[in-house]
Write a structure and sequence with these properties.
Number of helices: 0
Distance between the termini: 47 Å
Largest sheet: 18 strands, antiparallel
Radius of gyration: 21 Å
Structural class: mainly beta
Strand content: over 45%
Shape: elongated
Mean pLDDT: 92
Number of strands: 18
Low-confidence stretches: none
């Protein structure tokens, strides 16, 4: 299933002297390393990368050389590692990270490449590790951090990235 080819290193077509259409790169062991679609010399369309054993590592799309749309990365066993989206080359919307067993590890929001919206992380046991929110890349509102599952380490409040002086707990 690893798309193995013995001797090729690169395959693609040119149109008017520029890369055009589907291009493939192979690793030294013969597994496909990368698949990219070009339009008039620029990456445009779908792309995929593969790990050294030929398993899908990342998948996404590019619009005239800039990441745009859904992006996914995978563990070697095929389980999803990260799912999110790009808008004009910057992370945008909700990004979800997973543990190797498929449980959610982290959910965070982005707007124009900056952290924006809720952030929540979980221990491998499934219990909350950290929760809070960002506004334009700065911590905002209530934040809670747990030392271990069920044991609160600190609870703080922020406005525009600055901590309120009357919050309690220690980092």
């Amino acid at each position: 299933d690893g798309h193995r080819v013995a001797t090729r290193k690169l395959q693609g077509m040119y149109e008017d002297g520029e890369r055009h259409g589907a291009w493939r790169w192979w690793q030294h062991k013969g597994f496909v390393k990368k698949l990219v679609t070009y339009h008039q010399g620029e990456e445009h369309g779908c792309f995929e990368t593969y790990d050294k054993t030929g398993h899908l590592a990342t998948r996404g799309s590019v619009d005239h050389g800039v990441k745009h749309g859904v992006f996914e990365s995978f563990f070697p066993d095929g389980n999803k590692k990260v799912v999110g989206a790009y808008d004009a080359g910057e992370r945008d919307g909700t990004w979800t990270h997973f543990w190797g067993d498929g449980k959610v590890r982290r959910v965070e929001g982005f707007r124009k490449g900056r952290a924006h919206g809720p952030l929540k992380t979980w221990f491998a046991t499934g219990e909350v590790e950290r929760e809070g929110a960002h506004v334009d890349g700065r911590q905002d509102g209530a934040w809670r951090v747990f030392r271990r599952p069920g044991v609160l380490e600190s609870e703080r409040a922020y406005a525009g990235g600055l901590e309120y002086p009357d919050t309690f707990g220690t980092w």
